[in-house]
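lol forgot to send this yesterday, sorry. struct tokens for the thing we talked abt
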């Protein structure tokens, strides 16, 4: 006659509870900080929704050789280090990250300077692109490196502005 002994019901229950507590604490240690970071990131962009805007009119238009784009940085733009500009023309898009002191061969300031600058809070700057375009998207770039939601503008002919 063999004497087999199994775990008692109490010990099995205690082991299951300990396993559940260990799994829950691991979940809490890894998942909660990740969710907190995601929410903080989303909150930083939601506070800046109207921060960068495209100014309509004679400084945001195109002609046969160039495209002019005026970008305004509104109040409450703390934490914005620049903006991302995506220019759409003939079904393709070109993207430029505009920050203070950078330069691109295809972009100059309205005054002719090739060293680009981001407008001060409450100010606006006009950029001239040496190609024509149909529409433009502008999105704030945060100090953290995150790019927020873009605003879009269809461009008009400068002669009509």
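and heres what i got for the seq, position by position
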């Amino acid at each position: 006659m063999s004497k087999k002994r199994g775990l008692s019901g109490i010990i099995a229950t205690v082991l299951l509870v300990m396993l559940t507590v260990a799994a829950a604490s691991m979940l809490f240690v890894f998942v909660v900080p990740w969710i907190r970071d995601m929410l903080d990131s989303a909150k930083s962009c939601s506070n800046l929704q109207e921060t960068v805007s495209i100014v309509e009119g004679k400084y945001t238009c195109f002609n046969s050789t160039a495209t002019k784009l005026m970008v305004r940085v509104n109040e409450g733009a703390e934490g914005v280090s620049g903006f991302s500009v995506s220019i759409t023309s003939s079904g393709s898009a070109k993207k430029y990250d505009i920050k203070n002191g950078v330069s691109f061969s295809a972009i100059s300031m309205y005054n002719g300077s090739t060293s680009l600058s981001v407008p001060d809070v409450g100010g606006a700057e006009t950029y001239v692109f040496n190609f024509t375009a149909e529409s433009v998207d502008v999105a704030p770039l945060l100090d953290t490196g995150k790019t927020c939601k873009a605003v879009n503008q269809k461009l008009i002919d400068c002669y009509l502005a």
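Residues 8-46 form one domain. anyway ping me if u want another try
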